[in-house]
Amino acid sequence: MSSDQVKHLEFIQAIVARLGNGSFLIKGWTMTIAGAFFGVAANKSSWQIAAVTLIPIVGFWMLDSYYLRQERLFRKLYDDVRKPATAVEPYSMNIQPYLAIVRWPDVIRSHTMVNFYGLLTVASLAIITATALHR
Questions:
Q1: Transmembrane region positions (predicted)?
Q2: Pairing with 83, which of 35, 55, 97, 110 sits 20 to 30 Å away (CA)?
Q3: What is the mean pLDDT of residues 72-97?
Q4: pTM of the shown model
């Protein structure tokens, strides 16, 4: 493997790390905002406030899915660059060839997304139901 190839892989790896960090921060913000809305909704017994919680949950779900998709696209590029007889140009960051492989619906419905955001959605729906019945 040439030194140019190694450097190229390091560049891609740095991008993947930044995307992973962004995804981690998004999940933290999601928990913070959803927790605040859940607390206020439970305290005020307001199903409307609990329903508003769905907006940031879905919004952050889409944003986090974007980051995960980008990460997967760059991992595909990394995988091609590391091969000995690669057709990828040196230092290319073009992820266009992988867009058809890593599709949005697959990322949105991936285990990591559904387990985290799906659970928050179910919790939100449970709080909506509980506060609506409590009235």
A1: 21-41, 47-68, 114-133
A2: 110
A3: 92
A4: 0.90
Are the C-beta atoms of residues 42 and 125 closer than 8 Å to each other?
A: no
Q: H-type helices in the chain, by residue range? A: 3-44, 47-52, 54-81, 104-108, 111-113, 119-134
Parent domain of 60? 3-134
Token pair of 42 as six digits? 């439970």
What's the structural domain count of the chain?
Answer: 1
Query: Is 53 in contact with 41 (CB distance < 8 Å)?
Result: yes
Residue 1: name the closest of 83, 77, 71, 73 by CA: 83
Q: What is the pLDDT of residue 64?
A: 98
Q: Which residue has the tokens 């919004």?
A: 59
Eight-class DSSP state of 102: S
The pLDDT assigned to 52 comes to 94
